[in-house]
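seq:
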Amino acid sequence: MTAARRRWIVWGLRGLAVVPIVAYLVGSQAARSGGLVEVERWFNNPVQLMGAAVGLVVVSTMVGVRGWWSRTGCLISLVALGFAAVPFLFVWSVFGVEWREMDRKPGPEPGNVLVVTELVTLDPVYRIQVLTGSGWSARHWDLGWWGEEDGRGYFRGAEWSGPNQVTVTSEKEIVVFTVDPVSGRPGEPVATRR
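struct:
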């Protein structure tokens, strides 16, 4: 293989490595309140996308290195990094984050849905969202996170309490959100202690 062709392949692979990084940045932006649901679902996967980017950079490095000793040195360092990553991957696979949708309640306005998602850990954490729209134009609006350690006590539930109101109940307080009927964007919460 000629040196020019090798450089062309190396820089092509490095350019391809930028694609999953940009996809992850778009997905992490969509994960914020008001972001697009489908974009978050497809592109907010840091382990897979960053793994693909690192894999492409490693392949481009192996193609770019020409000498036998240089390739052997790169291969030995990659194997060492692989062995160092094994404990991390084991802990991540055993204690990794698992999301489970607990409840989905349609709202009084068409196209609005209240979703309660649980982060499965020793002390569960609940994410409350309002979804608006459908398909690729669907957006999610965060109402907040509820957990045992946040001072509000145990999460009891979330429900539509009026035409444009969502009530989130916990052990120590009740929080009421007013939701814009057109956009689904939540207003400022009104909390009352129990």
